[in-house]
């Protein structure tokens, strides 16, 4: 009888190995990662800076939960969109959906960003709305090339661009330099853009003004339709929602933002709007 035990043990080991391989293959098919997923990050003071930030932490957690491998690169935002559309890139992070972009990508939101106006303190009392900024004679707005900011702000950018009052920059460093030099009167951005760009004493010279009347703008994973099926996109959505439910998303946001801003990033903005009106959701 003892002579047969090693044979039974070996058979169990072989069956266990086959089961593990089958489960790995099933997961790869579920998430569309039979091959490493080509994923691009981009430099942004809210999401990614010098190898750290919300987005790289998201990628680490997604890799752990899905079992997928990622081939990660760092690219300009405008190039990311072009590659996703062409099919030479599979996935990116913190993207805003538009009707045009939905034609070539699925979107899985994981945070909600309230873009605002960052402007000199001397102008803050004059600018309580986007319309007020538009009325400032000669005031110009600085944006990053290839960025979208949500329907409300993007409509304002189109109006100002038609008047020749929008300047585009490659990154935050360039546009904050333009703001300090007076080349532009305001930037579209977030509190974290300001705190990440200027020393604390210089931040006192500027204000962040919330001029958007509606809810925050969802930002999420971008999955190229040329690589992922609708069912696979739904699997990524379920995975991200599991992170939301078990508190992992909150942990990531709180690791990279002060408590109030971290809570804002987790809030779609509907509760935020009701709170501003003194109402409960």
UniProtKB/TrEMBL annotation:
**What are the protein's UniProt keywords?**
Signal
Q: Which InterPro entries match?
A: Solute-binding_3/MltF_N
> Solute-binding protein family 3/N-terminal domain: which residues?
50-224
Question: What family classification does the UniProt entry report for this protein?
Answer: Belongs to the bacterial solute-binding protein 3 family.
Protein's name in the database: ABC transporter substrate-binding protein
Phylogenetic lineage: Bacteria, Pseudomonadati, Pseudomonadota, Gammaproteobacteria, Pseudomonadales
